[in-house]
Design brief:
The chain is mostly helical. The protein has seven helices and no strands. Helix 2 packs parallel to helix 5 and helix 4 crosses helix 7. It is elongated.
């Protein structure tokens, strides 16, 4: 009604051939919007202070995940039988995020690491941040009762210890 369409009049399908087309259009819009978000690693890094750099990475990731929460909630609710849509979101949004983090970790590693190791480290790095956002969306409260600042502080401490010169 807000778009000027009458319920059950069929005008909606003049714009979209099927519900799948609507879903793909929505995913396109979400992915385009996510692509317009600043890449916290590419746009703001490197910094002179590694601890500050890692803090930017963690906070930036949490902001991006918060902005994408509507998409992921929608996919969890309505995307289960649409493996093509899930694959598209993974290909266009999720995988490139892990690739960027893997490249960042490879660049900041104290020793050379190969691509598989960098991808595994990216999974370990993003896992707690993604989990924190999903936990908050699902349960309405922070994971383990820990607010974002405490989570970022702990995350930075772990990665700083990994990266700090020995």
């Amino acid at each position: 009604e807000a778009a000027g369409l009458s319920p059950l009049a069929g005008a909606f399908y003049r714009h979209f051939a099927s519900k799948a087309d609507v879903l793909h259009a929505a995913v396109d819009q979400w992915v385009d919007e996510a692509s317009d978000l600043p890449d916290s690693m590419g746009d703001l890094l490197p910094l002179d202070d590694l601890r500050a750099e890692l803090t930017v990475v963690a906070r930036g990731t949490l902001v991006i995940l918060r902005r994408q929460q509507e998409l992921f909630s929608f996919l969890a609710r309505d995307g289960g039988d649409r493996t093509d849509v899930l694959a598209e979101v993974h290909r266009r949004l999720v995988r490139p995020s892990y690739d960027r983090v893997a490249a960042y970790l490879a660049m900041r590693s104290p020793a050379p690491i190969d691509g598989d190791r960098a991808q595994a480290l990216a999974a370990v790095a993003l896992g707690p941040l993604v989990n924190a956002r999903h936990h908050r969306a699902l349960y309405g409260e922070p994971v383990a009762g820990v607010d974002d600042e405490a989570l970022v502080d702990a995350w930075v401490g772990l990665w700083f210890a990994w990266r700090a010169p020995r």
